[in-house]
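If you are new to this repository, start here. Below is one unmodified record pulled from the training split, so you can see the exact layout before writing a loader.
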Amino acid sequence: MVIIRPLHVVLRHPVHLRSRFVWHCSRSYHSYEHEAPPPFNQTEDAILSAALAHVPIHGFTTTALTRGARDAGYLDISTNLFPTGAFAIANYHLVTQRLALAKHTSSLQPHTGITTNLRSLALYRLHANKPIVHRWQEALALLSTARHLPYSLRELALLSDELLFLAGSTTVTSAWYTNRAALAAIYASAELFMTQDKSHEFIETEMFLTRRLEEGERVRGGLDMVGKWVGMQAGGLVDGLRSKGFWI
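And here is the target side for that same chain:
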Protein backbone atom coordinates (compact mmCIF):
# COMPACT_ATOMS: atom_id res chain seq x y z
CA MET A 1 0.00 0.00 0.00
CA VAL A 2 1.33 3.45 -0.92
CA ILE A 3 1.51 5.92 1.95
CA ILE A 4 2.57 9.54 2.32
CA ARG A 5 5.03 10.52 5.02
CA PRO A 6 4.34 13.62 7.13
CA LEU A 7 5.83 16.83 5.72
CA HIS A 8 8.12 17.48 8.68
CA VAL A 9 9.59 13.98 8.40
CA VAL A 10 10.34 14.47 4.69
CA LEU A 11 11.86 17.93 5.12
CA ARG A 12 14.31 16.73 7.75
CA HIS A 13 16.15 14.64 5.15
CA PRO A 14 18.58 15.92 2.49
CA VAL A 15 16.97 17.11 -0.72
CA HIS A 16 18.32 14.25 -2.80
CA LEU A 17 16.78 11.69 -0.41
CA ARG A 18 13.34 13.22 0.10
CA SER A 19 11.68 11.46 -2.84
CA ARG A 20 12.38 8.13 -1.14
CA PHE A 21 10.36 9.16 1.89
CA VAL A 22 7.35 10.65 0.09
CA TRP A 23 6.32 7.30 -1.39
CA HIS A 24 7.01 4.16 0.58
CA CYS A 25 5.51 0.69 0.18
CA SER A 26 7.13 -1.44 2.86
CA ARG A 27 4.39 -0.82 5.42
CA SER A 28 0.63 -0.99 5.07
CA TYR A 29 -0.04 2.08 7.22
CA HIS A 30 1.47 5.18 8.73
CA SER A 31 0.31 7.01 11.83
CA TYR A 32 0.89 10.69 12.42
CA GLU A 33 1.01 9.79 16.10
CA HIS A 34 3.88 7.37 15.64
CA GLU A 35 6.81 8.47 17.77
CA ALA A 36 10.40 8.38 16.59
CA PRO A 37 12.86 6.36 18.66
CA PRO A 38 14.40 8.32 21.55
CA PRO A 39 17.59 10.21 20.64
CA PHE A 40 19.40 8.93 23.74
CA ASN A 41 19.54 5.45 25.20
CA GLN A 42 18.63 4.80 28.83
CA THR A 43 22.16 5.17 30.18
CA GLU A 44 22.88 8.35 28.22
CA ASP A 45 19.58 9.87 29.27
CA ALA A 46 20.15 9.06 32.95
CA ILE A 47 23.66 10.52 33.04
CA LEU A 48 23.01 13.60 30.93
CA SER A 49 19.77 14.56 32.67
CA ALA A 50 21.53 14.26 36.01
CA ALA A 51 24.51 16.23 34.71
CA LEU A 52 22.21 19.00 33.50
CA ALA A 53 20.98 19.44 37.08
CA HIS A 54 24.56 20.32 38.08
CA VAL A 55 25.01 22.95 35.36
CA PRO A 56 23.62 25.88 37.42
CA ILE A 57 26.50 25.41 39.90
CA HIS A 58 29.29 23.75 37.91
CA GLY A 59 28.48 25.02 34.43
CA PHE A 60 28.83 23.08 31.21
CA THR A 61 31.91 21.22 32.36
CA THR A 62 33.27 17.71 32.74
CA THR A 63 32.73 18.18 36.47
CA ALA A 64 28.98 18.40 35.91
CA LEU A 65 29.19 15.34 33.65
CA THR A 66 31.07 13.32 36.27
CA ARG A 67 28.70 14.32 39.05
CA GLY A 68 25.78 13.39 36.83
CA ALA A 69 27.23 9.94 36.28
CA ARG A 70 27.60 9.44 40.02
CA ASP A 71 24.06 10.63 40.70
CA ALA A 72 22.76 8.19 38.10
CA GLY A 73 24.58 5.35 39.82
CA TYR A 74 27.45 4.92 37.38
CA LEU A 75 31.22 4.95 37.83
CA ASP A 76 33.20 8.04 36.85
CA ILE A 77 34.68 6.12 33.91
CA SER A 78 31.21 5.97 32.36
CA THR A 79 31.72 9.54 31.17
CA ASN A 80 33.85 7.97 28.42
CA LEU A 81 30.52 7.27 26.76
CA PHE A 82 30.58 10.96 25.81
CA PRO A 83 33.75 11.66 23.79
CA THR A 84 32.63 15.25 23.22
CA GLY A 85 32.71 15.91 26.96
CA ALA A 86 30.68 18.85 28.24
CA PHE A 87 29.29 19.48 24.77
CA ALA A 88 27.17 16.36 25.29
CA ILE A 89 25.30 18.15 28.09
CA ALA A 90 24.59 21.20 25.94
CA ASN A 91 23.49 19.01 23.05
CA TYR A 92 21.23 16.99 25.36
CA HIS A 93 19.50 20.19 26.49
CA LEU A 94 19.02 21.37 22.91
CA VAL A 95 17.61 18.09 21.65
CA THR A 96 15.30 17.33 24.56
CA GLN A 97 13.90 20.86 24.68
CA ARG A 98 13.27 20.81 20.93
CA LEU A 99 11.35 17.58 21.26
CA ALA A 100 9.40 18.99 24.22
CA LEU A 101 7.94 21.73 22.00
CA ALA A 102 5.27 19.37 20.70
CA LYS A 103 3.69 19.32 24.16
CA HIS A 104 3.12 23.08 23.95
CA THR A 105 0.97 22.99 20.83
CA SER A 106 -2.17 22.33 22.86
CA SER A 107 -1.82 25.80 24.40
CA LEU A 108 -1.73 27.58 21.02
CA GLN A 109 -4.79 29.64 20.24
CA PRO A 110 -6.87 28.29 17.33
CA HIS A 111 -7.28 30.31 14.15
CA THR A 112 -4.24 32.50 14.86
CA GLY A 113 -1.52 33.38 12.39
CA ILE A 114 1.73 31.50 11.98
CA THR A 115 3.74 34.43 13.34
CA THR A 116 1.70 34.47 16.55
CA ASN A 117 2.18 30.76 16.98
CA LEU A 118 5.89 31.07 16.26
CA ARG A 119 6.20 33.71 18.95
CA SER A 120 4.45 31.51 21.49
CA LEU A 121 6.55 28.45 20.64
CA ALA A 122 9.84 30.35 20.53
CA LEU A 123 9.13 31.96 23.91
CA TYR A 124 8.29 28.57 25.36
CA ARG A 125 11.61 27.25 24.11
CA LEU A 126 13.55 30.28 25.38
CA HIS A 127 11.98 29.97 28.82
CA ALA A 128 13.35 26.44 29.02
CA ASN A 129 16.78 28.09 29.29
CA LYS A 130 15.85 30.06 32.40
CA PRO A 131 17.36 27.68 35.01
CA ILE A 132 20.72 27.72 33.20
CA VAL A 133 20.66 31.06 31.41
CA HIS A 134 23.51 32.40 33.57
CA ARG A 135 25.59 29.50 32.20
CA TRP A 136 24.35 29.57 28.63
CA GLN A 137 27.25 31.62 27.29
CA GLU A 138 29.45 28.67 28.27
CA ALA A 139 27.23 26.45 26.15
CA LEU A 140 27.44 28.91 23.25
CA ALA A 141 31.21 28.79 23.48
CA LEU A 142 31.12 25.00 23.17
CA LEU A 143 28.56 25.09 20.37
CA SER A 144 30.61 27.54 18.30
CA THR A 145 33.91 25.64 18.24
CA ALA A 146 35.08 24.23 14.91
CA ARG A 147 34.59 20.68 16.15
CA HIS A 148 31.00 21.16 17.24
CA LEU A 149 29.70 23.90 14.94
CA PRO A 150 28.30 21.55 12.24
CA TYR A 151 26.24 19.69 14.86
CA SER A 152 25.12 22.97 16.42
CA LEU A 153 23.94 24.39 13.10
CA ARG A 154 22.14 21.16 12.27
CA GLU A 155 20.31 21.27 15.60
CA LEU A 156 19.38 24.92 15.04
CA ALA A 157 18.00 23.99 11.62
CA LEU A 158 15.97 21.16 13.18
CA LEU A 159 14.62 23.58 15.78
CA SER A 160 13.55 26.02 13.05
CA ASP A 161 11.91 23.13 11.20
CA GLU A 162 10.05 22.07 14.34
CA LEU A 163 8.91 25.61 15.15
CA LEU A 164 7.60 26.20 11.63
CA PHE A 165 5.82 22.86 11.46
CA LEU A 166 4.19 23.18 14.88
CA ALA A 167 3.18 26.77 14.11
CA GLY A 168 1.23 25.54 11.11
CA SER A 169 3.52 26.21 8.16
CA THR A 170 2.98 23.80 5.28
CA THR A 171 5.15 25.55 2.68
CA VAL A 172 7.00 23.13 0.42
CA THR A 173 8.48 25.64 -2.05
CA SER A 174 11.87 27.34 -1.91
CA ALA A 175 10.31 29.87 0.47
CA TRP A 176 10.52 27.21 3.18
CA TYR A 177 14.32 27.42 3.11
CA THR A 178 14.19 31.20 3.40
CA ASN A 179 11.73 31.06 6.30
CA ARG A 180 13.83 28.42 8.02
CA ALA A 181 17.01 30.50 7.75
CA ALA A 182 15.22 33.64 8.91
CA LEU A 183 13.70 31.92 11.93
CA ALA A 184 17.03 30.34 12.86
CA ALA A 185 18.68 33.77 12.84
CA ILE A 186 15.85 35.30 14.90
CA TYR A 187 15.84 32.56 17.51
CA ALA A 188 19.62 32.43 17.88
CA SER A 189 19.84 36.20 18.31
CA ALA A 190 17.04 36.13 20.92
CA GLU A 191 18.83 33.35 22.79
CA LEU A 192 22.04 35.39 22.85
CA PHE A 193 20.11 38.50 23.93
CA MET A 194 18.57 36.54 26.79
CA THR A 195 21.99 35.83 28.31
CA GLN A 196 22.35 39.58 28.94
CA ASP A 197 18.75 40.27 29.93
CA LYS A 198 18.32 41.37 33.55
CA SER A 199 14.64 42.37 33.27
CA HIS A 200 11.89 40.74 35.30
CA GLU A 201 10.88 37.39 33.78
CA PHE A 202 12.99 38.27 30.73
CA ILE A 203 10.38 40.67 29.44
CA GLU A 204 12.99 42.49 27.33
CA THR A 205 13.87 39.22 25.59
CA GLU A 206 10.18 38.74 24.85
CA MET A 207 10.01 42.24 23.35
CA PHE A 208 13.19 41.63 21.37
CA LEU A 209 11.79 38.41 19.91
CA THR A 210 8.48 40.09 19.04
CA ARG A 211 10.26 42.92 17.22
CA ARG A 212 12.41 40.53 15.20
CA LEU A 213 9.44 38.39 14.19
CA GLU A 214 7.49 41.48 13.15
CA GLU A 215 10.44 42.69 11.09
CA GLY A 216 10.62 39.30 9.40
CA GLU A 217 6.89 39.43 8.66
CA ARG A 218 7.19 42.88 7.08
CA VAL A 219 10.01 41.98 4.72
CA ARG A 220 8.70 38.54 3.81
CA GLY A 221 6.92 39.91 0.74
CA GLY A 222 10.07 40.24 -1.33
CA LEU A 223 12.46 37.30 -1.65
CA ASP A 224 15.46 39.54 -2.34
CA MET A 225 14.69 41.66 0.71
CA VAL A 226 14.29 38.58 2.85
CA GLY A 227 17.64 37.23 1.72
CA LYS A 228 19.37 40.48 2.60
CA TRP A 229 17.55 40.67 5.94
CA VAL A 230 18.53 37.11 6.84
CA GLY A 231 22.13 37.96 6.01
CA MET A 232 22.00 41.00 8.28
CA GLN A 233 20.50 38.96 11.13
CA ALA A 234 23.08 36.20 10.77
CA GLY A 235 25.91 38.72 10.56
CA GLY A 236 24.69 40.44 13.69
CA LEU A 237 24.56 37.12 15.51
CA VAL A 238 28.12 36.22 14.51
CA ASP A 239 29.37 39.66 15.58
CA GLY A 240 27.57 39.25 18.91
CA LEU A 241 29.20 35.89 19.55
CA ARG A 242 32.63 37.19 18.60
CA SER A 243 32.20 40.16 20.91
CA LYS A 244 31.76 37.64 23.74
CA GLY A 245 35.02 35.94 22.79
CA PHE A 246 33.45 32.93 21.09
CA TRP A 247 35.24 31.26 18.21
CA ILE A 248 33.10 31.39 15.11
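Two things worth knowing about this chain: The CA atoms of residues 1 and 130 lie 47 Å apart. The beta strands are 3-4, 23-24.
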